[in-house]
Write a structure and sequence with these properties.
- With 92 residues, the protein is mostly helical.
- It has a domain of 38 residues: Histone, subunit A, CATH 1.10.20.
- It is 45% helix and 7% strand.
- The chain is built from three helices and two strands; from the N terminus they run αααββ.
- A hairpin with a 2-residue loop joins strand 1 and strand 2.
- It starts with a helix and ends in a 5-residue tail after the last strand.
Length: 92
């Protein structure tokens, strides 16, 4: 897509830029080059033929396991408490 000077001036006005005529020409060429590259990217075939690939869910289902009160107490005793809450190490 080729940008005209009035289009570049409109974009510059929206961005509150005061451009010289030389800058308008340079920016117009650069924007035209960028949009030309985007047009090339749109021509790339990106379809995936899923019939040739077997797609399976590799994640296991979550299982809820109830702990006895004794197991819960043992687990909670292994950590430090602060203000009645279990204090855990920071995860980065």
């Amino acid at each position: 897509m080729q940008f005209k000077d009035k289009d570049i001036q409109h974009i510059a006005d929206l961005a509150r830029l005061d451009l010289t005529p030389a800058e308008l020409k340079v920016y117009g060429e650069q924007l035209s080059s960028i949009t030309g590259y985007i047009d090339q990217l749109q021509d790339i075939k990106t379809d995936i033929n899923s019939s040739s690939q077997s797609l399976n869910n590799v994640w296991r289902e979550d299982e809820v396991i109830d702990w006895s009160d004794e197991e819960v107490q043992v687990a909670l005793e292994q950590g430090d408490r602060e203000g009645g809450l279990l204090k855990v190490k920071r995860v980065l």
